[in-house]
Amino acid sequence: MQLTVTGKQLGVGEALRSHVEASLEALLIKYFGSAIEAHAVFAREAHLIRADLSVHIGRGIMVKSAANATDYYPAFDAAAERLAKQLRRYKRRLRDHHARLRNQPEELETARSFVLGGGRRGAGFGAGHGWAGDSPCRHR
C-alpha cells in the first residue's frame, strides 16, 4: 500500500507518520486485506487540528473520513474510527448481498411461444394491398 502523510502549513514528524502507518495497516488488514493507496492530511483550523483520511481500496472504491481535535493523535484516531465504521458497514453490505444471492432460490419462468400473424398467404385483411403476408419481411 502506498501511504502519503502530509501537513498543510505544518510539519509532520516521523512518530506521527509511523503511528498513522501502523494504525491504517491494522485497520485495512482487519477488513479488506490491503489497499491500493492511502492519504492522511493534517491541517490547522483556528485552534483545532483537522485530520482528513482517504483510502483507495479497490477499483472504484474510495472511502474518506475527517475529524477535528486539539492535538494530532486524537484527531487522527477519531478520523480512523470513522473510517473503520465506514469500512465495517461496506463489508457487511457486501457480505449480506452475497449471502442473500446465495440463499435465494432461483425462480424459473416458462417462456410463452406464439405466432403473430396468421392464416394463409393472401387471405384475410389487406389481401392484395401489400399487407398481411403478401411479401416476407426482410431485415438487413
Structural account:
The chain is of the alpha+beta class and 140 residues long. The chain has a domain at 2-95: Ribosome hibernation promotion factor-like (Double Stranded RNA Binding Domain, 2-Layer Sandwich). 36% of the residues lie in helices and 26% in strands. The protein is built from 2 helices and 4 strands. The chain has helices at residues 14-31, 72-103; strands at residues 2-8, 37-45, 48-58, 61-69. The protein has a 4-stranded mixed sheet, covered by helices on one side. A hairpin with a 2-residue loop joins strand 3 (48-58) and strand 4. It is elongated and about 90 Å long. The model has no long low-confidence stretch (mean pLDDT 80).
Briefly characterize the structure.
With 140 residues, the chain is of the alpha+beta class. The chain has helices spanning 14-31, 72-103, and strands spanning 2-8, 37-45, 48-58, 61-69.
Strand order of the largest sheet: 1-2-3-4
**Oligomeric state:** single chain
CA-atom Rg in angstroms: 31 Å
In the CATH hierarchy, the architecture of the domain at 2-95 is 2-Layer Sandwich
- Rounded to the nearest angstrom, the distance between the terminal CA atoms is 53 Å
CATH class of the domain at 2-95: Alpha Beta
Count of alpha and pi helical runs: 2
Low-confidence stretches: none
Order of helices and strands: EHEEEH
The CATH topology of the domain at 2-95? Double Stranded RNA Binding Domain
Measured as a percent range, the helix fraction is: 25-40%
Shape: elongated
The profile of the biggest β sheet is: 4 strands, mixed
**DSSP strand content:** 25-35%
What structural category do the secondary elements indicate?
alpha+beta
Q: Give the number of DSSP strands.
A: 4
What's the CATH superfamily of the domain at 2-95, by name? Ribosome hibernation promotion factor-like
* Average of the residue pLDDT scores: 80
